[in-house]
Amino acid sequence: MGSESKSNNDDMNKMKNQALIDLEEEEGEEEPESCPSYKLVKFKLYETRSNFYLVGRDKTKKFWRVLKIDRSEPSELVLCEDPTVYSYHECRTLLERIHDGNRCTGGLKVVTTCYGIVGFIKFLGPYYLILITERRKVGMICGHAIYAVSKSKMIPIPHSTVLSNWDNSKKENRYKKLLSSIDITKDFFFSYSYHIMHTLQKNLCGDDTKLVPYEALFVWNAFLTRGIRSDLQNSLWTVPLVHGFFKQVKFSKFGRTFHVTLIARRSRHYAGTRYLKRGINEKGRAANDVETEQIVFEEVDGGRVLEISSVVQIRGSIPLFWSQETSRLNIKPDIILSKEDHNYEATRRHFQNLVDRYGSPIFILNLIKTKEKKPRESVLHMEFVKAVATINRDLDKENRLKFRTVDLTRLYRIRGAKVLMLLNKVAGNALDQTGFFYCQLPSYMNHEVSSSLSYVATELADANTIKECSQPKIARFQNGVLRTNCIDCLDRTNVAQYAFGLVALGHQLHAIGITPTPKIDLDDELADSLMALYEAMGDTLALQYGGSAAHNKIFSERRGHWKAATQSQELIRTLQRYLRNAYLDPEKQDAINLFLGHFQPEVGKPALWELDSDHYYNIGRLTPPMSHEFSRSFLKRSLSDGVLIYESSSPAMPADIRDTSNCHHPLPDLKEDQTGMSESTPEISTCDTDITYSRFTPSMSGRQLFTDMPDAEYLRGECSCYNEHGDEFDCSDILALDWVSSSGNSCEEETYDRSSLVSSPAGGSVAGSNMNEMMEVQQSTASPIPDEFPDSFAQWVEFGTTLA
């Protein structure tokens, strides 16, 4: 017995020493130059039988904090933050005492090293702690490191001795698997000291004390961190994760090297997948809402940044109430256009939100088809024109929405890749109106900005300070934004965003003093390099929302790629996107809703996968919650060639709406609900509607079809189009123009010409109604489709690997 006791004591001392060695290694670790801001950047998680202890330190290794998490509660989250700020030696002494006090139950053990808390989540049983266990640096902005997540870990908080029966249930495990499908090691990024969720202009010119990171619409773990931030009244322990795209590259021009950083921030509001999130919701939040920022700077004298510039543009679904439902039998699902919001109140809210965020003017670039033999996109286009005209009717001329239409599909067929020259012209016009951000960072302030721009106020508190410090060059500021859309806001939109980015890059380099003129030719090597950067962003955003890489045929043609190879690639991506949308997206949407907190599991309530749709939270069609039986008939589609279905009902608007305040030029008579624009709290509409559907295939002109079209005076000068020669003209009667006629009703993004499809060995082709007929036959003879699919199938759909 004595020998056994001695052995146990030796083991305890070994564990104790191991914990202290780990902490001591922290002190000897090399770190970048210290930052005086107080933000914890590295952590170690320790455990005893009754508690977790998370020990965190700042970048200087001078400040150490301890957070205790109670493990004795089976289903509650109990946090206790030690208010003491420890030194290294004091923290080491504290750990020794904790170890000694828990010898009888195993002492203090190291669980993992981590780099921040992603959040806490609860399903049906215990709470789980989600940690970033590995990170990688992907770039620097003004001396501030930007990181991506390399590895993460989800740890159940209660000790195994107090876990309930729910903890290993099938539902609990399925929820854990569902949440794990949101892979935060892909396309999520963060910074400890830079507000990466805000633009550079807002970081440098805004009041930093008002920049609350987790209230930004681009922070995806706002819900997961809400509990700890509320309990502790701080965000020292958590990191705000932004979802989208981040890449920083070095370019050279005239012997000078500069950095171009491309950031895409995806909104967490109304987030989801291609066919399950379309249009806008009641609060005016658009589907596939992505903010793109292009930052340019040149480093001198060992990494100092003396001049920096940025420009912002956005993309988002057409801001109307419209939708499509995934169909396993129809590659082109019907478009459902709601006619309920007669006054376009939600559309007004959407554009008011853009004015509040970016200022005025709002420059709209609409890339969808304007006329078709079988109207689909063109009907949405006309409704969009009508909505903008209705809003502009109540605005002063200088504050009106600027609406431009480019039928990119039509123009590409006529001019090929030369359509980029036309897009450059439109982009130049938009940039002239919105401007871009540029400022000098004086040498005496550069170190402070590079190392101290963080979650505390900086001396660059407002634009006037920058102006005073920017002599002899004058600072520039962006006021307004370009908003681009097509149907999916993926393929055509990405080409247009590249065109705007190229025009802006020329102006940015000229402002910094790298180029003598503000123009970059399309044949310039720099244009090709920037194209590759935007192509990478487009593929990433398309995978997130659409399920496949983007269709880049304009880029491919510009590079001179073989047309047959491009068409084959486009066809493969079309099929991958279809399969992903039809079979895998419902589960992906469930995972997104779970991660964002739109659905919170409860014991005794239906599970997430048992619900027919995500009407459990407000999807924004001004419709009431529906029973499962009714919702299935409510959303039925026919197996047609994808023509448009109209949704008609008596108008019904929410009662709890009020006027919004604004910080820029307001949109008049704009109403907002009591929760405001900054939160995504789930809501259920209580309005009563009696909705019916009727198939409608119009053959009349646009003016006959839309008899309630506003007077042209509200469109003239604000709504214009471009023809195949690149000439701009007024389009207040756009549907009567012959040049926009299309050669049939084609699939979104026109991924291939039907006449040039590669034939199968049997001599047939997969196109149009033939594909629909083929799938109908397969569906009628196939066995029932399972709820879950083999990993090999999902792997092929997502990454294009070989399907075994």
From TrEMBL:
All copies of domain SAC, residue ranges: 179-547
Tagged with keyword Hydrolase: yes
Acidic residues biased stretches: 22-33
Region described as Disordered: 1-33
GO biological process: phosphatidylinositol dephosphorylation
Primary subcellular site in the record, as a coarse category: membrane
Domain of life (superkingdom): Eukaryota
Catalysed conversion reaction: a 1,2-diacyl-sn-glycero-3-phospho-(1D-myo-inositol-3,5-bisphosphate) + H2O = a 1,2-diacyl-sn-glycero-3-phospho-(1D-myo-inositol-3-phosphate) + phosphate
UniProt signal peptide: none
GO CC term, one of those recorded: vacuolar membrane
Record keywords: Hydrolase, Membrane, Vacuole
Membrane disposition: Peripheral membrane protein
Coiled-coil positions: none
Short name of one Pfam family: Syja_N
Cell location: Vacuole membrane
GO MF annotation terms: phosphatidylinositol-3,5-bisphosphate 5-phosphatase activity
Assembly with partners or alone: Component of the PI(3,5)P2 regulatory complex at least composed of ATG18, SAC/FIG4, FAB1 and VAC14.
Protein's name in the database: SAC domain-containing protein
Source organism: Opuntia streptacantha (Prickly pear cactus)
